[in-house]
Amino acid sequence: MPMLDAYIPSGALTPEAEEKLMAKLTDVLLINEGADPSNERTRSIAWLFVHRPHEVYVAGSRAGAPRYRFIASVPEGQYDPERRGAMVREITEAVLDAEQGAHERDPSRVWVFTPEIPDGTWGGGGQIVTLADIAGFATGDPELGRRYAEQRLAERREAAIA
User: Fold this and answer.
1) pLDDT tens across 122-143, in order?
2) Exposure string over 106-125, b if 16+ CB within 10 A, otherwise e
3) What span, in angstroms and rounded, lies between the C-alpha atoms of 15 and 18?
4) Is the pTM here over 0.85, yes or no?
5) Fewer Cβ neighbours under 10 Å: the N or C end of the chain?
6) Fold of the 3-123 domain
């Protein structure tokens, strides 16, 4: 259940480019969370929220070119260093591609944050939703979802100890 908060300055992209970017970012989110982007169940829980800063300042002055900020939140256990790095790279490249050459291709204008939401603290539908719940929904099999979540969380916690 990835969620993306996309801070895209007003007018930075054409409407068509932004629509294509949102579809691409949905795929990027799902793939780097370990899900199949062609699975309609998983696509249905990949949400992107577009925020529209009207002005962005750098060093106390208005930025001369658009600056972007993305916060790609996933449940605990879904990122590993490879997935996290891929998320940052792929979002950055997709945004710069979406500009279609309107600005210098400068990756330092795109910032991507990749927080994991601790298991048991994600809320949706008026209740707490765990990684097991989300994986069970995505696979259509609650038992498979539970086993997946137990394995991912155990691996993550083991890595944190090491």
Assistant:
1) 999 999 999 999 999 999 999 9
2) eeebbebebebbebeebeee
3) 5
4) yes
5) C
6) Macrophage Migration Inhibitory Factor (3.30.429)
